[in-house]
Amino acid sequence: MKDKNKTKSQLIDELVELRHQLEELKPLEMEHKRAEESLLESERRLSTLIGNLPGVVYRCLNDNNWTMEFISDGCVELTGFEPSDLIGNRTVAFNELIYADDQPLVWDQIQSDLAQKRPYRVVYRIRDVRGEEKCIWDQGVGVLSKEDRLVALEGFLIDITEKIRLEAELEKAKDLALLGEFSSAVAHQIRNPLGDILLGTK
């Protein structure tokens, strides 16, 4: 009987200790909950920010397909494809959208910059789901592991098609203005001697 009472006493002591430990854990649980809520809020803000950028944020592998691990919703406007179509090359690989003539340039430029551990910037053409040509400005960086191994590329794509078109039109306008000035100067040079000749014949 004595042993049984002792065992009960020990169990009560253990229960009291457990309750005490649970009370001590409550502040930690609250802290964990606050940290979790803060993380969710940060993720929500980041998602809103990325969703409102006038371009595409991406994370891809440094492989021949530029296999996407993440691509923002802006890719729908840029390419006509949903993010899920590009992630893991599910429907199409991003490299397939790049003009064949531009693919070596893109690869060489990015690899050169990665080798020197600097951000890359490259301009190239893609063809969207409707077959329309777009000019892209791509800027990103290599993401390294703790062991200094390249694990991914993270970057930003912007459609600069309209900018390129406007620059070409401006250049054409400048050329036409120069041609107009040249024509005017030539006409002036021709008119002066002709005027002298005509005056001399009177």
Strand order of the largest sheet: 2-1-5-4-3
Task: State the total count of DSSP E strands.
Answer: 5
Overall spatial form: elongated
Q: Give the termini separation.
A: 150 Å
- Find the structural class using helix and strand composition: alpha+beta
Quote the beta fraction. Answer: 15-25%
- Per DSSP, the total helix count is 6
- The proportion of residues forming helix, as a percent range, comes to 55-70%
Largest sheet: 5 strands, antiparallel
Question: Mean pLDDT, rounded to whole units?
Answer: 82
Order of helices and strands: HEEHHHHEEEH
How would you portray this structure in words?
The protein is of the alpha+beta class. The chain has 6 helices and 5 strands. A 5-stranded antiparallel β-sheet has the order 2-1-5-4-3, sandwiched between helices. A hairpin with a 5-residue loop joins strand 3 and strand 4. It is elongated, with a radius of gyration of 34 Å. The N and C termini lie far apart (150 Å).
Furnish the topology, listing elements before pairings.
Elements: H1 2-52, E1 56-60, E2 68-71, H2 75-79, H3 83-86, H4 94-97, H5 103-115, E3 120-127, E4 133-144, E5 150-159, H6 161-201
Antiparallel strand pairs: 1-2, 1-5, 3-4, 4-5
Any descriptors?
202 residues; elongated; single chain; alpha+beta
